[in-house]
Every structure is written in structure tokens, then in C-alpha cells.
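Example (one chain per record):
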Amino acid sequence: MDVVGVGYRVAIPLSTFYRLGEEGAEVSLRIHTHVREDTLALYGFLSAGEQALFERLISVAGVGPKLAVNILSGIEAPELLAALRGSDLARLTRIPGVGKKTAERLVVELKDQVAGLLPATEPAPAEGGAREDLVSALLHLGYSRPEAERGVDKTLREGGDARFEDLLRRALRILSGR
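Predicted structure:
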């Protein structure tokens, strides 16, 4: 990140990366500065809700800032909140770097703390098997999990009441940029 001629290395989750503009475009990030005796690291977020969620994640024992960014890269914030509130350990353990014990700690420590972290304008995750079926289909076609979830979420926001085949076609069009 270039700030008036000074370059900064800022770690960001994939969800933030996907919403950034083209290279060289002006962007405003909310920065969390993580200071340790041997490290000064910057973590950036586009929304206050994502930053607050990151800060809650790093408050959990065994979850450092790198794992917290990895968690936010592996699952969209609204879906993460739903998984925490619903104690969905299976969904949490599908995030790279999150094992069963970490998932259990996240649920125990954050389940009651996450209400109201994201504004109502951020989309809620789609429920049910259709979403997982679409994500699975895209994974089998070679898309990464975050990429597939992003495409499916956008597809379902635009109209999630169509047949599976139509939803899959729409997700493929979104991911291919057409």
C-alpha cells in the first residue's frame, strides 16, 4: 500500500482483496496494528464489522492475527457469524488452519459475543443444502473455496429461488466475469 509515497505492507483477508479496485486505485482501509516485541504488522479491512470480527478472533487463545486473516479469507464474515452462533463445528473446521479444538474454542468464546458485529447492510449467508451443493460443484470444477463461496453468495443474493442448474450457470458467469 502506498501512502503519500511511503510503502506499507498490509495483510488483508481475501474478502477485502476481492472488493478492492484495480491496481493504483485509491482505497481506504481500516488498519489494525499488531505489535509484539519482535514484530510490527499491519492488517487491513474495508469495513468496521470485519475489523471488529478480526479483533474478536485474535482475542481467542491460540488464534493469532495470521490465523484470524486466514479464517476471514476462508469464510465470509456473515457466514462465520452464523457458524459461530449455530455452533457449526463442521463448517469451521473446513477453514484451512482451523482444527477441531480451535473451532470449539472459537464457538465457546465467541458464540455470545458476535451479535451485532456486522451492520444489517452486509448480506446474511444463505441457508440450506443448495448453497453447499453449489460450492461443492464449483470446487470440483477447480475453483478455490473462497472464490466459489464468493460466487455462490453473489448468485444467491441475485435470486436464489431458481433451479440448481440455473444457479450453477449464473455462478459460473459471475466467476468468469461475464
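Caption: The domain at 129-176 is CATH 1.10.8.10 (Helicase, Ruva Protein; domain 3).
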